[in-house]
């Protein structure tokens, strides 16, 4: 639980500048090491509040619980500084203040900062390939009384960026012959379920061994925060040889040597001809009713060199 700002002590940018000039303050940047390296207030020390070892590192940095301390984060609307304030108070530090407006306010006033500058997240290439070993496609199917979950092995894929660094097209291919169930521990029962899903009642895997998601466009979502979808993806989902339009919100983020794309969506299996147990198709199903919607959780790693 974050503390109310009414219960916190704050210090202005002007007040902090004066304390730094006099050398009478311990200034702590509570953001990540990466953020601190890019840009920080001159004279600050980085102790990341997101780390579980924050209390121990704080004790090593400053053992005097009465020492004057100023902490800061990025600024509005983020609240890492409030989390750090609560933690320091719980540890017994009595002279803690938060920089009003955080780093954002300090920079806007043109005060002294240091750092390497923001990382360049633009694609170094326009073409990346799916890393099938690291990527996962997880599924959940439900009936009236229960649900089952598992995974489908990914067989390949790629994404391409346009000249402006915007995701322009791509595809992810699933090997339907390598579908497994995770929640049923008894092997024969699990095999029976997978056999039924692979049959003509559902995905007719013998005749259609692959399913595909073809990405036609990726529109950036304005104002998206870290940890929230930042891309509106539109394309086509193909299973059983039948395609249907699909639109989903996704997170696309740079990683070392490539990108990771993560999305969770549902699709109506009856739209591709998987009709078994559908209340839209069959009457008076009772306990044989199976939900039309299938949930998909895709985490796809794309790397610059083809595996």
TrEMBL record:
Q: A Gene Ontology molecular-function term?
A: transferase activity
Give every Rhodanese domain span.
Answer: 21-115
Q: Which UniProt keywords apply?
A: Transferase
Q: Which SMART domains match?
A: RHOD, YceI
**CDD domains, alphabetically?**
RHOD (cd00158)
Q: Which Gene3D superfamilies match?
A: Lipid/polyisoprenoid-binding, YceI-like (2.40.128.110), Rhodanese-like domain (3.40.250.10)
Task: Classify the source by domain of life.
Answer: Bacteria
Which InterPro entries does the protein's record reference?
Lipid/polyisoprenoid-bd_YceI, Rhodanese-like_dom, Rhodanese-like_dom_sf, TTHA0802/YceI-like_sf
This chain belongs to the protein called Sulfurtransferase
* Source organism (scientific name): Oceanipulchritudo coccoides
